[in-house]
Specification:
Blueprint lengths: L16 H18 L8 E5 L3 H10 L4 E5 L5 H9 L3 H4 L6 H5 L6 E5 L8 H8 L5 E4 L1
Parallel strand pairs: 1-2, 2-3, 3-4
Helix pairs in contact: 1-2
């Protein structure tokens, strides 16, 4: 099951970190309570911006696995990479994956391209440093 963000595709409205996180938890709870899927059979996947809600959800729930593709440590860290030290001051901190990762208890699988120009691969390495699980770079 995939989550869509408000303001994208057919989901109308405006997007915010809070709304995205509420929606992520609603979808997760639907899988558990309505579809009766056990947590061990729920694998969370987040790519790029999607790594934020996926990592947060894994930090408060107990899914079978967290899979991240091109994840970042935080939105501010990406802003700093793209626009320099001052740029990070202009961006509100959102999706603090590095902080969330400390509470993730499930296995974590991280994939990140070495030539990613948007999100530096070193951010995935930092996330990996918070867990004992696996990272693959290509």
């Amino acid at each position: 099951m995939a989550q869509e963000y408000p303001g994208y595709g057919i989901y109308s409205g405006s997007s915010s970190e809070k709304k995205v996180l509420i929606d992520a938890e609603t979808v997760y709870n639907h899988l558990l309570n309505e579809l009766k899927i056990s947590e061990e059979n729920i694998f969370l996947f987040g790519r790029s911006i999607g790594s934020g809600p996926a990592t947060w959800l894994a930090s408060i729930k107990n899914p079978g696995m967290l899979i991240l593709m091109s994840p970042f440590t935080s939105i501010r860290a990406v802003a700093k990479h793209l626009g320099g030290p001052l740029a990070r001051l202009l961006v509100k901190e959102r999706f603090k994956n590095l902080e969330f990762m400390k509470d993730v208890k499930c296995p974590v699988f991280i994939i990140h391209g070495k030539k990613d120009n948007l999100i530096p691969p070193m951010q995935a390495v930092k996330l990996y440093g918070t867990t004992k699980f696996l990272i693959i770079q290509f």
